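Hi R.,

Here are the chain sequences for the assembly we discussed:
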Amino acid sequence: MKDLQSAFAGDVNVGLAPASSPAVSATERAGRLESIGFRLAQWLRSPRPYLMLVGFALFLGFWYLTVEVWKLPRFSQMPGPTAVITEWLSPDPTYGLSIYSPEYYEHIWVSWRRVSIALLLATATGVPLGLFLGWSQRFKDYVFPVFELLRPIPPLAWVPLAIIMFAGSETPIVFLTFLASFYATTLNTMLGVESIDVSFVRAAYCLGAKRRQVFWHVIVPGAMPFIFTGLQISVGVAWFSLVAGEMVSGQYGLGYLINTSYTMVQYPTMVIGMITLGIVGYLTSAGVRMLGNYLMQWRARELAIGAEK
Amino acid sequence: MNYEPARSRGSPDVAANALMQQERRTGAIRIANVLKIYGSEAAGVRAVDDCTFDVPAGKITVVVGPSGCGKTTLLNAIAGFHSISSGTIHLDDSLLCGPGRLKADPGPDRIVVFQNGSLFPWKTIVENVAFGPIVQGRLTRKTAIEKARFMLAESGLHNLESNYPGEISSGMRRRVEIARALMNDPKVLLLDEPYRALDSLTKSVMHEALLETFDRNQVTIFFITHDLEEAIFLGHRVVIMTTRPCRPKKIVSVDIPHPRDYSVLTAKRFREYLDETVEAVHQEALKAFDAGERER
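And here is the predicted structure of the full complex:
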């Protein structure tokens, strides 16, 4: 699955590349389009897509056999894949939710909006905080111990406090979602700054850069790969804690859907919610990866050469 | 990589250029009684002790010593990355570091080319080369990029302009790094074992390219290595260091005329210089080995 992701991310990056450099000529653009085609063809010729399909088939087959054919004792309550898929694709669903019901998209939209707001907040606060933590030892001495003390507290433990602190049901959920992402982003950004080879900083000073210029020309871009690793993790944990928050409070949202379907014994709908979470989560994390490749062409190109070797 | 190295050595305008450059020869470094102790005065490690020698302007001075002997400490003091404990270092007539000001400020008059390379991987080759004048505010971005293109073309690297450092060979990266340094008209180039990680074939190409650059610019070069052949091949002056604490053990003027090329390696004079110095280097290497010195 990871290979597939990187293959796609790489292709998309090549496709986006011309926008960033105004000097790119039309021929070069055509060349890049050609290279997308070439890589796609190569990917289809490799065993990877077929192994992936086999993997999915095995998974679905296992689910089908255990639940619908063998009807194993512990699986008796579980909806089988045919039940879930027919419900999911049905224009007239038994439990009232399928790809034809507007309510389904309302759930997705609400969850997606919460995650987006939380991620934006986490990035807007976590990246600068991480940069300063890595850049200034004194700042780190003040802030880091507190940060490290708060970080192990799981978002679920914040639920009661979040409900007391914030009005309504929307803000506590966003806050919980934000929390875990914020830790991941901050910590990775800080590690990113600390990972920068001291030679780069020295070289910049040698070439006459002032401290502020070193920050913008060396520290920020140098930490970028770690920042994006942090964002990848932060997207993952955002969906994680979002569902936790939605299960406790709130209306709408995929976590809420899963939880209510469970209490109302609408098991196929519950599984639809889970699968949808998987898909939406995958798409957001692929989006972040694409953004990373787009912003760090130097890295994408370096890695592409590494792959050829 | 299908590039053609600029084979301009010996052409008349290069000779004229060199003559013109001789007029403004600056970049003499005077190192006097330099002491550097890491850690406390009493229990610290003496990396450099009572070290005195001159780096003449417009020449290549190569410092040879076993790994970890303290020669990089000396380079870091000149560059302004580290302080010294006592002594003085002058660049031409101005004091870089000495009593009252133990750490020099890093600046574009002394540019370091690092052991493992330090081209910014997130900037293209041409952006890297243009970096110095832009951050100093000496040139506008546009003129700096133009000048960088010119510098790259001069070193036969023009077709790499829009590549990122990660996409070119490590030998090429070193040459770009030297071009990036020369963009700033430095008084001194400080090279810290720049070719250490390269294979010997690439190394020989690099040596010729460096000498060619030197012929063109006549910039003072302070070069650190542990490779004696490299030292004699490149240097006007070879300073052999004792192992820690580091101070000159033997200073040799290599009287082989520049421009040099690879035929020098088999010349009789070259072998004689090697014979003359190899003993001194070997002694220090043994001492360093016995002391269990490690690369810092």
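The mean pLDDT of chain B is 82. Chain B has one domain: 12-24+57-85+99-291.

Let me know if anything looks off.

Best,
T.
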